[in-house]
Amino acid sequence: MLSRVAEAIYWMNRYIERAESNARMLDVNSEVLLDFEMSGITSVKHWTPILSTLEDHELFNTLYQGLTGDNVVDFVTFERKNPNSIASCIASARENARTVREQISSEMWEHLNKLYLFIRSEEARTLFRSSTFEFFNYIVAGSHLFQGTTDATMTHGEGWYFGQAGRFLERADRTSRLLDMKYHILLPSGEKVGGNVDTVQWMGVLRSCSGLEAYRKIYVDQVAPWKVAEFLITDDTFPRSINFCVNELDEVIHHISGVPRRRYESEVEQLSGRLHADLAFVDVATIFKTGLHQYLDYIQLRLIDIASALTKKYCEWQVPEEKV
Hints:
mainly alpha; globular; 16 helices
């Protein structure tokens, strides 16, 4: 497969996963803050963690006058100057899909193009103003429809594996950032860890990953920080846990290379295999001893290294120079 084709399919899936993750995060945060406002708790400081999680503070400050909920939501949803906004991610996914139309199914292109036209339409703005819940649910459903269509209509060859690599790399990174978002939230004065506000916030983290129901099936008692971290980091059955995503990532990397698992003939295989092994043996006590934020930051850096090694090995390409 040509490097440019592999790269386009890889990023097409990463951008769709990123758009879905942002929609989940904004929807849940809006609902949680609505509950807080009804209880008389100020909500402005609860928007800061979103910018911290996405590492977009500097760009936000150049485009907006003040930190308000409306500004943050607009920045992460519609702002085209923000390359990580939902609108920008969908546009980038579509552009990558356009360059490889011959490699993807017509159904994939139709669903992605429909989502792109929606996010640019006045209909999207009208739906957003009337119900943010319905709007963000449309984005999440659109992502699910595209991913399901991809799995059902695209040949499961090299191109599909590169798409899977992009999907699971992005999903692991976003789960780590959603979990890390709780670190950036300062509890209201007088509120203790394990209190009502703290519990609501941890439930919000789970809901952002669509993991609350799955969590309840395993941990039937209180939503506790160490149990949420254990679930979202180490669980090997939940599709959005970091461990699950890295396991899937390691598998597709070996499918791409043709090297059997537990054999490592390239840097990307070594990096993914080492991270998968570390996640399989780490325990929550070690994570909290290290520091949840520090551990998650370390995971993000390792995912970046894997992405860089994958791009270097398979996706670097140059346009041939024209002959004089």
